[in-house]
Write a structure and sequence with these properties.
Blueprint lengths: L11 H10 L3 E5 L3 H10 L3 E4 L3 H4 L11 H12 L6 E5 L9 H15 L3 E3 L7 H9 L4 E6 L5 H4 L9 H17 L3 E5 L3 H10 L4 E4 L7 E4 L1 H4 L17 H17 L11
Parallel strand pairs: 1-2, 1-8, 2-3, 3-4, 4-5, 5-6, 6-7, 7-8
Helix pairs in contact: 2-4, 4-5, 5-6, 8-9
The structure holds 3-methyl-2-oxobutanoic acid.
The site of 3-methyl-2-oxobutanoic acid has 11 residues, from β6.
Length: about 270
Amino acid sequence: MAEKKEPRKITTHTLQEMKRAGEKIAMLTGYDFSMARALDDSGIDVILVGDSASNVMAGYETTLPITLDQMIYHASSVIRAIKRALVVVDLPFGTYQGNSKEALNSSIRIMKESGAHGVKLEGGIEVEDSIKRILSAGIPVMGHLGLTPQSIYKFGTYTVRAKEEEEAQKLLSDAEVLERAGCFSIVLEKIPANLAGEVTKRVSIPTIGIGAGGKVDGQVLVLHDMLGLTYEFHPRFLRRYANFYTEMKDAVGKYIADVKSSDFPNEKEQY
Ligand code: KIV
């Protein structure tokens, strides 16, 4: 009998090989067991347990309120669902900016308590020491530059970052800092496509863009946005692949009507 082949597991090395081979990386956010199982079965390469859970799962306006315990809860739900994808978890606001020891302790909690494969944090040279310390414990780190939502009160708006030369130069230099520090990949959020292309050429690690154009090594979207669950959010970079909000509303509407009319349950739907 032919041996049943397990699907290839994605590791940080796989992503590196994909960059070298020019194969694009597909990443989506995921926060719970059922959705993560569908993502993994669909063949997604990376699931990011993003702190956007604060927005789309908990309904907060920013990513700032979500806690380390809540991120661990989301991450462990995702981990229980996956067989193939690499799972990376956001270090939430306030759990790594203090000092590198705090960053390491938060990362260790995520890895130990959720079983995830790596962590992501926002920032450039300011978080270099933390990245090195986390890596010293053998924990893979993904960087995040450009629009970094945990700094929303510093930026003041969610508009495109690094359009001016000075900020673009800082971003290029930060990308090199992250690569030298040992990050296995960098998320580039909402920056001009040419700048994202320049970063992608300069660093040997994969870049994954969101609102950063096509000259990057991979793409990421927030799951609820691309599925059309957050129907009121439509930035230019977002492509919607479904209209789940409307479909759910229609389905729930039909269920309500069936219950009210005593159509549900019928003879076959009871014991
Ligand atoms: O939290 C998140 O969803 C993210 C992506 C936007 C990259 O960081």
